[in-house]
Amino acid sequence: MSTGIRTSLRELLATARIDPGRVRYCMLGTTHCINALLERKGLDRVAVVRIGAPASKAIPPFADWPADLASAVRFRSFFVEGGNEFDGREMRRLAERRLRTIASAIDGRVRSVAITSIFSPVTPAQEIQASRVLQGALRHRVSISLSHEIATIGLLERENATILNAALQSVARRAVVAFRRATRQLGLRSALYFGQNDGTLMDIETALRQPILTVSSGPTNSIRGASFLARVSDSIVVDVGGTSTDIGVLKAGFPLESSRPAMVGGVRTNFRIPDILDLALGGGSRVRPGRRLTVGPDSVGYRLTKEARAVGGPTLTATDIAVALGRCRFGDPKNVRGLSPSMVAEADRVIHAMVEAGIDRVRTSAKPLPVILVGGGSILLRDRLKGVSQIVRPDHFDVANAIGVSIAEVGADVDTVLSYGDDSRSRALARACRGAVDRAVRAGANRRRTRVANIEEIPLTYLPGNAVRVRVKACGALAM
Amino acid sequence: MTDLRAPDYLDIALGGTILGTGGGGSYTAARRVAERVLRRRRVRLVALEDVPTRARVVTAAAMGSPEAIRDKPFTTQARLAVQALEAATGERASYVLPVETGGFNHIACMTASAGRNLSVVDADGAGRSIPRLDQTLLYAHGVPFSPFTLADDHGRTITVAAGEFALEQRIALNALEYFGWLAGLACFPMTGKQVKMSSVPGTISLARRVGAAVREAARSGDDILQTVLAVTGGMELIRGKIAGVQTETDGSYTFGTLKVRGSGEHAGSVVSVKSMNENMIAWKDGRLAAVAPDRICYLGPGGRPVTNADVSLGDSIDVFVIEAQRQWKTGAAQGLFSETLKAMGHNSSYVSAEGSSHHPRP
Predict the structure, then answer these.
(1) Where are the beta strands (DSSP E) in A265-315?
(2) Where are the domains positioned within chain A?
(3) Which helix (H) or strand (E) holds A7?
(4) Secondary structure string (H, E, C) spanning chain B
(5) Are A59 and B37 an interchain contact pair (Cβ–Cβ within 8 Å)?
């Protein structure tokens, strides 16, 4: 990994003719962690502690995990009495003695522990206390992942994310070491950052503690990079590949997040990841003429250069339609000259109808938005689409991902339940906002250039005292 | 009699939420319980007509805040509540019944039966979702609400028999606070004869059929709303996008107004839906289109269920209406919503959606 980073950095520095000593910040957008999870490679074994028993005992940890991943990660699971209610009250006191028994059962046998307590995003005290008790009782070093630092409300999803985070400790350490070594060897003395799922940056210390927050940074960075290259911030990004088309929405420069649970390595988590619509349409999609002409869902994929009609192959593909319409050059146009013009027109109509329907599904207002068209398959599309104000085809899309991470700001958020009962709403909110800004500044943002990017309030019915769940996100430019 | 299994629970969670008239509990919670608590269990579903007249039946449900259930799973609470009610009445139940229609309500009831020799009646106490337990058909037909029990998953239980609904409701809400805003509820202890007189039959299997049909239509690319209308005999009100969301809460109930602007062939039309937790009144282009107990239902893009708790501006949504079941049109049931409707500014009496002229019959 170190070699890969070094090679691209050296190339970049040489091409740009920059003195390595003058580079102050270096950001890495990496798929290292997600790949380790997908391949089940290099993962740590984890002792899982759930605080809240007897509540929730009927659904043990790892309940809905893929078997191979569970057996690669699971050491043992333990239930501990304790936990909080969602109004903050203690459900039960934390059973410290039980934790000491657990410590002796895992000491020297496991290097990573995941602790999840019921409603810890509201009241993290018991997780912190449990971590202290365990650390005090263990003779060997362990890294402990606390669920309230990893994810939000939703016990089993948060626990899953915390276990994954605990399993990634060694992988993260290796990635950080590789990143450090590569940059040092090239004489860079920059501050190092990792791109995280929501399109913001985290420092090395956070990345070591919370490696799971890098796992879905890929699509986020690509979308943000595309918007930067196209110079539009509110838009729809349509990425047409060989087999599929990804459509995502950018709002104020950030991808719109999905409300559905995010699957990571086959495990359900509650991360917020970009809401991306995936259409089975690409340059290699098979076109089947007939009374009801269809395009896809199957595709010849990377075999396009052998299979397509335009190169003398047997299969009629979406690319052949674009060639026949003179929209792009590929193979020999003579090979598609024999296609019936009405069939070609119908296929073109179907392709555009699919994309236009997709755009319509992701859009959040009736207002026409600009569309950023990227990816090798985007040659299929003409320069006018229904409901679209403007089409931009930016250059350098192949490095959009790297651009996306290098333009990112430092981000941090606070997710908590506030009671407006004995405190005024504005004071309680202001406190939450300050918390988020402080977190961003601690991670390297310039305080004067850090702002609250988003406040979400969800009133909690059934609860007295005007309780509200509040999510505050702060973002800030790096302190340069 | 049918044995339900894992895929059925998911279909019931999906179809039940779609039929839940904008309420009926969170779909996410329903799906979680279906996947995590019921998955490996078998639940026996028995048609209402097959329930013996003298059988002992209780309703089983979840009570609490949708926020609480996000971190505290709903697992054994309903079962423990039913056991507590059995202990209080001294009679072992052989059937459980959901209080109302709704993905989460149906699924929560099933957790009471799982792992016990306790069948679920294919029916429920309202045939739709309702804001208050005294708006069930059970209550309207004089089935006593109490004694009722609440239980949490620590095995702590409370039994109440105050004999006065308003008082009992207050006691339940207070008890709920101590249970961390989530508890299993068992109430309406009754006989098979009473269930047959006062519940709406076939609602669970209808939810399952709707869920299965939506899943199938989403897979094959068929028009999902058309499919749902075909299964339920409902009528399309509008397809469009959410152009306005207004909610207000008085601490116990959430009052909402949803505005949907039509698109496609509905372009130019506007539907507004007023709700008190559940959908109560719908207008189309300023004219009254449907009133509870007729069921005003939502359908999200790709067949996703939408409830009033998760509507958000700009989202695509379809609104359709299913006429109230005949059980709602007889004496005792007729007035159940009039007070609620009056409080929402609707004074005239119930008009069947089928009887109004501006949308076609199914």
Answers:
(1) 267-269, 277-279, 285-288, 294-299
(2) 2-36+172-214, 44-167, 232-396, 409-478
(3) helix A2-16
(4) CEEECHHHHHHHHHHHHHCCCCCCCCHHHHHHHHHHCCCCCCEEEEEHHHCCCCCEEEEEEEEECCCHHHHCCCCCHHHHHHHHHHHHHCCCCCEEECCCCCHHHHHHHHHHHCCCCCEEEEEECCCCCCCCHHHCHHHHCCCCCCCEEEECCCCCEEEECCCCHHHHHHHHHHHHHHCCCEEEEEEEEEEHHHHHHHCEECHHHHHHHHHHHHHHHHHHCCCHHHHHHHHHCCEEEEEEEEEEEEEEECCCCEEEEEEEEECHHHCCCEEEEEEECEEEEEEECCEEEEECCCEEEEECHHHCCCCCCCCCCCCEEEEEEECCCHHHHCHHHHCCCHHHHHHCCCCCCCCCCCCCCCCCCC
(5) yes
pLDDT above 90: residue A302: no
Task: Return d(Cα A385, Cα A229) in angstroms, integer.
Answer: 21
Name the amino acid, one letter, at B32: R
Q: Using alpha carbons, list the distances in angstroms from residue A458 to B70, B194, B276, B311.
A: 14, 41, 18, 12
What are B228-264's pLDDT values in tens digits? Answer: 999 999 999 999 999 999 888 776 788 999 999 999 8
For residue A319, give how far its alpha carbon lies from the nearest alpha carbon of chain B (Å).
24
Q: What is the mean pLDDT of residues B51-64?
A: 96
In chain A, the percentage of residues whose pLDDT exceeds 90 is 44
Whole-model pTM: value is: 0.82
Please, what are the domains in chain B? 2-201 (3.40.1610.10), 234-343 (2.40.390.10)
- Is the N-terminal amide bond of A368 cis, ω within 30° of 0? no
At A177, the pLDDT band (50, 70, 90 cuts) reads very high
State the alpha helices, DSSP H only, in A231-340. 304-307, 318-324
Which of A57, A59, A86 is closest, CB to CB, to B68?
A: A86
Alpha helix (H) residue ranges in A376-455: 400-406, 425-442
The yes-or-no verdict on residue A251 having pLDDT over 70 is: yes
Q: Which residues contact A294 (CB under 8 A, 6 or more apart)?
A: A287, A288, A350
DSSP state of A80: E
Length of chain B: 362
Structure tokens at B50: 């097959």
Question: Residues A312-323: what's their mean pLDDT?
Answer: 94
- CA-based R_g, chain A, Å: 25
Provide the pLDDT confidence category of residue A360 given band limits of 50, 70 and 90: confident
Question: CA-nearest residue of chain A to B180?
Answer: A85
pLDDT above 70 as % of chain A: 96
- Contact flag A463-B36 (C-beta cutoff 8 Å): no
CA–CA separation, B10 and A472 (whole Å): 34
Helix, strand or coil, per DSSP, at residue A79: strand
Angstrom distance (rounded) from CA A354 to CA A238: 12
For residue A308, the 8-state DSSP code is: B
Per-residue pLDDT tens over the stretch A221-248: 888 888 888 888 889 999 888 888 889 8
Residue B357 pLDDT more than 50? no
Task: Select from B66, B72, B155 the Cβ nearest to the Cβ of A155.
Answer: B72
Contacts of A330-334 with CB under 8 Å at 24 or more apart are: none
- Span A438-453, pLDDT tens digits: 988 888 889 999 999 8
Touching B: A residues 432-471, CB under 8 Å: 459-464, 469
CB atoms closer than 10 angstroms to residue B254: 20
Provide ipTM, 2 decimals.
0.80
Say whether A469 and B32 touch across the interface (CB within 8 A). Answer: no
Name the band, by pLDDT with cuts 50, 70 and 90, for residue A70: very high
May I ask the CATH class of domain A232-396? alpha beta
